[in-house]
Amino acid sequence: MPELPEVEVTKLGIEPYVVGQAVSHLIIYDGRLRWPVPSHLKTTLQGQLCQAIDRRGKYLLFQFGHGILIIHLGMTGVLRIQHRHEVPKKHDRVEIVFDEFALRLHDPRKFGAIWWHPRSQGPVEQLPMLARLGLEPLEPSFAGQLGGKHLHQVSRGRTIAIKQFLLAGHAVVGVGNIYCSESLFEARINPKTAAGKISEGRYMILAESIRKILQRAIAAGGSSLKDFVNSHGEPGHFMMQTKAYDRANLPCTICQRPIKQIKQTGRSTFYCATCQK
Question: Which of 11, 58, 93, 163 is catalytic?
Answer without folding.
Answer: 58
